[in-house]
Amino acid sequence: MTTFDLSFNLFFLSFKAFKYVPRKIPLLFIIALSVLFEFAMAHPPADSSKLAAEQHPTFDPGRNAGKDLQNAIHLAQKTHRRILLDVGGEWCIWCHRLDSLFLQNKDLQEFLNRHYVVVKVNVSKENMNQEFLSTYPKVAGYPHLFVLDQNGKLLHSQDTGELEYPKTYPVKGHDKKKVFDFLEKWSR
């Protein structure tokens, strides 16, 4: 449907609805419809899948973790933030659950982005990133988080199992409060 078709349809609908509008405000009604139409055309809906990918990228076996960390150090120094290495893979259900927690909680996502530069470090059969990860403590499970200062120095190694709801809890996933407390503690 073209812009002309949309304009014509809105114009036609405004005349159909005109008989229900009080006689004193038909001009305001038409102006309001025009403004609404112009706003809708100027602000198309965002592609949510693209937006999600931009806000929280995937684990990519083709990426160079060392180069990504160097870029993160540069950005962290420039913006006075910490670095969060998120170690996992696309195969990891718990990695997706943690990502979903951020995507579904705007306040958590905003806090993360305000205080951290996030680097996804892939671990998969295509790329285990062994050389890169050999400089950090052993990881028992995934996802695993490493907090670094703005110069890349390790401050903390976090097993994300400790950030999950209790095993007896009816929902599987990471506890928003525990994740937020962890991020807040290491953001200083």
Explain this structure to me?
This protein is α+β, with helices and mostly antiparallel strands and 188 residues long. It folds into two domains: 3-42; 48-186, Glutaredoxin. The chain is built from eight helices and four strands; from the N terminus they run ααααβααβαββα. β3 and β4 form a beta hairpin. α1 (3-18) packs antiparallel against α2 (26-42).
**Principal-axis shape:** globular
Q: In which order are the strands of the major sheet placed?
A: 2-1-3-4
CATH superfamily of the largest domain: Glutaredoxin
Number of helices: 8
What's the domain count? 2
Uncertain parts? 2-8, 10-15, 39-55
- What radius of gyration results from the CA coordinates? 24 Å
Main β sheet profile: 4 strands, mixed
Tell me the distance between the termini. Answer: 52 Å
Oligomer: single chain
Return the CATH architecture of the largest domain: 3-Layer(aba) Sandwich
How many strands in all? 4
Task: Quickly give the structural class.
Answer: alpha+beta
CATH topology of the largest domain, which one?
Answer: Glutaredoxin
Name of the level-1 CATH class of the largest domain: Alpha Beta
Summarize the structure.
By secondary structure, the protein is of the alpha+beta class. It is built from eight helices and four strands.
